[in-house]
Amino acid sequence: MPIPFRSWPARWQLTLTSAALSTLEQYPWPGNVRELEHAIYRAAIVACATQNHTELELLPTHFNLNVELMAERINDGPYEPVLATDLATMTQQFQRDVIQKTLEDCDRNWAATARKLSLDSGNLHRLAKRLGIK
After folding, report:
1. What is the pLDDT of residues 15-30, one digit of tens each?
2. Residues 6 or more apart whose Cβ sits within 8 Å of residue 26
3. Phi, psi (degrees; rounded to nearest 5) at 55
4. Which residue of 35, 43, 61, 104 lies most exposed, with the fewest beta carbons within 10 A?
5. Are 14 and 58 in contact (CB under 8 A)?
6. Which sequence spans correspond to the domains of the chain?
7. Which PANTHER family match (predicted)?
8. Is the whole model's pTM more than 0.85, yes or no?
């Protein structure tokens, strides 16, 4: 897939492999569209250094993306909110889901869960009790 972009040097003809395109589609892109633009530009620089010709083929290895974010998105999928009548109920459900998932990831260790969620352990215990987790 050729990438038209006016700021590329005129000597570059960029092409994304299907694997690279799949990698870009799976990445959650926590920033804005400029993050994607910069990632492609950096990948082009890396490809230029390794391929040494004007028709550059961008491979997944040319992108320096946070693999942990991709793994979370692939494993968990997008968060599907529970439809409720009010925001408070939906917020409590979201908190319950996050705490339970983090607790499972930490092998039911409450102190590790509190650290991972950047919460005081006492506050986590009170919140879990209020949410009906404990």
Report:
1. 888 888 888 887 777 6
2. 70, 73, 74
3. -95, 100
4. 104
5. yes
6. 13-69, 79-131
7. ANAEROBIC NITRIC OXIDE REDUCTASE TRANSCRIPTION REGULATOR NORR, TRANSCRIPTIONAL REGULATORY PROTEIN
8. no
